[in-house]
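Next up, sample data.

:::
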Amino acid sequence: DVLPDGTIAGEKPCDRTMLIAYYPWEAGKEDIRQLFSHIGEIRRIRLNSERATGRPKCYGFIELQSQAQRDRAIQECLEGKITCADKRGEIWKLKGE
């Protein structure tokens, strides 16, 4: 059953959350949202950074609308379909798991 907020009944947030890594340090939440928006609604993004400097660690977590969307996003990362260019034009293939 689909709930009013679009989530699937019985799924927990951890069922819809995936680790992302290997994106350019200058990429922000909106960049990440854009990369995955074709798969579905991104409910939450958390990008980790160093406490002392605030410099990005280039890994984080995204929560999608459903487990099926999370699985598709992981598969697209494995296939090298989710990429992001840095300021130099270097293409980064995001890792997802």
